[in-house]
Structure to design on (178 residues):
């Protein structure tokens, strides 16, 4: 299969899709504890710079296998059940209707970008606010087990060393070409 930079996106023939990470989202799991199965729609107001906008999202309920009910958003465009809806162009729609992709699907083939993605995932779990900072944290986040913290911290240190080595390898290839 093609190497680094191959394909329509790497060759610059197509612009990559916008990613879900670039937009705000609403997740039904966040609302699960405050809504009950009688609620069929969720209405709320979005405050903007110039005006307030009233929004209504429909909620569907399905029976779960072990009793109880599970809530779902209904995408206003395709009416499919979704856990998350994304806010783009003044509308809450699902990932497919907005034409969004996951960032992870667009970075394959670039070792440094893949390592950076893994580093950022661990930094989010360790609640490191400055994602550009490449130092390992000294204190564990609240409610995280000590063993999990040390495992993540060690993996973060290993990934940062691996990233530095990949950068050196890439620089050597470039310098050998020149």
């Amino acid at each position: 299969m093609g190497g680094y930079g191959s394909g329509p996106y790497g060759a610059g023939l197509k612009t990559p899709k916008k990613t879900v990470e670039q937009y705000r989202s609403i997740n039904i799991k966040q609302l699960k504890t405050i809504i009950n199965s009688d609620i069929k729609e969720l209405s709320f107001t979005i405050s903007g710079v110039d005006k307030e906008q009233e929004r209504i999202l429909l909620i569907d309920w399905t029976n779960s296998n072990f009793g109880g009910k599970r809530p779902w958003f209904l995408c206003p465009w395709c009416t499919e059940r979704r856990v998350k809806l994304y806010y783009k162009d003044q509308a809450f729609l699902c990932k497919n209707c907005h034409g969004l992709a996951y960032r992870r699907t667009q970075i394959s083939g670039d070792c440094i970008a893949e390592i950076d993605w893994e580093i950022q995932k661990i930094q989010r779990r360790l609640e490191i606010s400055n994602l550009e900072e490449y130092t390992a944290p000294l204190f564990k986040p609240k409610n995280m087990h000590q063993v999990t913290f040390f495992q993540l911290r060690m993996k973060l240190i290993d990934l940062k060393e691996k990233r530095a080595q990949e950068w050196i390898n890439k620089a050597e290839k470039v310098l050998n070409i020149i």
Summary: The longest helix spans residues 146-177. DSSP finds five helices and seven strands in the chain. The radius of gyration is 21 Å.
